[in-house]
Amino acid sequence: MDFIELSGGRFGYICTGQGTPVLLLHGLGSSLLDWQPQIDHLSRSFRVYALDLRGHGRSEPLRARLRLADLAEDVAEFIRAKEIEPCFVVGISMGGMIGFQLLASHPDIARGFVAINSTPSFPLDSFALRCRLALRLLLIRLLGLRALGWLLARKLFPHAGQAALRAQTAARIAGNDRTSYLHALRAIPGWSAWPALENVATPMLIVSGDRDYTPLAYKRDYVRKLRNARLVVIEDSGHATPLDQPTQLNAVLERFLADPDAALAG
User: Fold this and answer.
1) Which residue of 63, 73, 205, 212 lies most exposed, with the fewest beta carbons within 10 A?
2) Phi, psi of 75 (to 5 degrees)
């Protein structure tokens, strides 16, 4: 792992492979380690960067509240510091939200964007969403990240043959800094990349596991609002598609990164 000093502090990242640059952005409570199957595969044909977002992995911890837009600015600064603009950006969950915000704020910074099990907004207009958020905050306060880790791991990897993934994910979530996790979590509710995102012409591939938390109908609806996007569904996959279906996802990513226009045309 290498490190870089940015205005948001010290960030851990890796860079491997040669060719067109691709930047991978992980989700909440995760780190660049969860991209290993994609790093191994994509680095055969592309120059792959994976970044630990602020408050995660080996990067600077969070000690104050911040906005999702602040995390997107970290990513923009990293891209320009490494002189890889425009690059491909791939983000999962919160990393996908940061990618949407990045395009809304800097529409020319990416030559293509892939959002995996993610959304361009997180409005608190749903009672169910408010309850989920409140329950997660309460669980962390009462039982800590170790309990949250095991709860999420069982939901992410429900199959009998996924015991190793459950154990790995639970341990990684438990290893988070509690304060950093809470600040990052609180940056999501109420955030939206609309309406600026409607004017972005960057090719966007929206990837969803067929068992992801967010309904496919919702993703189909927001894809219709984007200027240049297509939805692809990965079968037998939950929210952690890079880990539970790496082979399927890697094939989808490789095709898009090789020729975004052809991939979006079907």
Assistant:
1) 63
2) -65, -45
Answer yes or no: is 148 within a domain: no
Angle (nearest 5°) at CA 44 between 40 and 48:
65
Distance of CA 69 to the CA centre of its chain: 14
Does residue 147 lie in a domain region? no
Chain segment 46-77, per-residue pLDDT in tens: 999 999 999 999 999 999 999 999 999 999 99
Instruction: Report the candidate in 117, 159, 104, 121 with the shortest Cα–Cα distance to residue 25.
Output: 117
Q: Of 71, 21, 30, give the one whose Cα is nearest residue 241.
A: 30
Q: How many CB atoms lie within 10 A of CB 248?
A: 17
pTM of the model: 0.96
Name residues whose C-beta falls within 8 Å of residue 182's C-beta, 6 or more positions apart in sequence: 137, 140
* Domain assignment of residue 258, given as a range: 2-122+191-265
Q: Are strands 21-25 and 47-51 parallel, antiparallel or unpaired?
A: parallel
List pLDDT tens digits, range 159-206.
999 999 999 999 999 999 999 999 999 999 999 999 999 999 999 999
Q: What is the pLDDT of residue 177?
A: 95
Q: Answer whether residue 128 shows pLDDT above 90.
A: no
The total number of structural domains in the chain stands at: 1
DSSP 8-state code for residue 62: P
Report the Cα 119 to chain-centroid distance in Å.
10
Query: Residue 193 CA to chain centroid, in angstroms?
Result: 15
208 close to 115: Cβ distance less than 8 angstroms? no
- Name the token pair of 137: 């905050």
Residue 127 has pLDDT above 80, yes or no: no
3-state secondary structure 13-72: EEEECCCCEEEEECCCCCCHHHHHHHHHHHCCCCEEEEECCCCCCCCCCCCCCCCHHHHH
